[in-house]
Structure formats: structure tokens, C-alpha cells
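Reading is simple: the C-alpha cell line describes the chain's fold. The lines below illustrate.

. . .
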Amino acid sequence: MNWTEYTSKFSNILDGTFAEKPYDNSNYVEYVKLNNSRVKRWNKRLNISDEIKNSIAKINSPQTWILIIEHWCGDAANSAPVIHHLAELNDNITLDIQLRDDEPRLIEQYLTNGGESVPKLIVRDQNEEDLFTWGPRPKECQALVMMHKESDKTELEKKSELQNWYNDDKGQSILNEITELVLENITLVI
């Protein structure tokens, strides 16, 4: 699906026209409501530096950026808009959004520590060869999540701390990490 289809599905879930599992559960619908507002906020406030824009402009051959996500996922709501805006910077990039739980389950080939964590970005060249993967979250944020596994904090405290990290970071870690991977794997076609 493309970005418009992805963002439109938020409305379909929230108005009840799409109520398949897990969206037949009110808790998941609440996650979607919160994530919808996060996506809208990131679309308005993300700032991409000229340096990053210039780096992404160096991609001069077709790439497919496959983004595996789910509407209920808070990390995806914070990362997907950033990845979308990066992809929009270069006509050689096609963003293909796939839902983790839909067939075919591509996520099974891109596990993180044995788990189906999302978001997961797979960048492929014009020959469908993987150039790199990224995800499920920026390195510093991942370290925070790992620290939380050993913490006595409540789930609410952990989620709040994680969202505060994303808000304070303003998407810059995602931008920098993906741009660094792009530059490491760029194939210049002359």
C-alpha cells in the first residue's frame, strides 16, 4: 500500500468500517486513535536538514523501500512519517508499506532478536537485492527499551518515557541513521 492508503486506514479503523482483528478490540482502537494523532503531528513538525536532503538526492537508481508496520504500533507511528518524508525527497525511491500481520508475512524473514518487531524498513535496489534494513527503532531508543525490560517501572511509565524520547529527538535519530545507511550502500549509476 502507499502512504495515502496507509493513512486512510486510520480513519477506517476509527470509524468502525474496518473492524477485523485486532481492531475488534477497543484497546487496539485506542492505540490507533493515539497513533493517528502522532502521525499527523509528525507530518506537520518534522524538520529535515539540507544536508540530509542532499544525501538522499544522491540516490540515482531505483530503490524500493519496504516499510513493515501496523497501525496499532507506537514505534511505527513515530517512525513511519519520517521514513515517508525521506522517501518523498527522491523520485528514485518507491515506498511500499506492508502490514506485518497480512499475508505474505515478509516480517518472518526480517526478525529482530527472534521477534516480529515493527517498524522494519527493508531497502532494495532495482534488482530486488537488499541493500540494508533498519528498525524497529533508533539505536538510542532501542537501548531505552532494553533498559525498560529490567526496570520496575509500570507499563504506563515506560510508554510515557519512550514517547518523551521520540518527542525530544524530533525524528533526528531516524533521519540520521537511515541517511547513514543510504550513503554506506549507495550505488551510483552513471
Q: What stands out?
A: The chain has a mean pLDDT of 95.
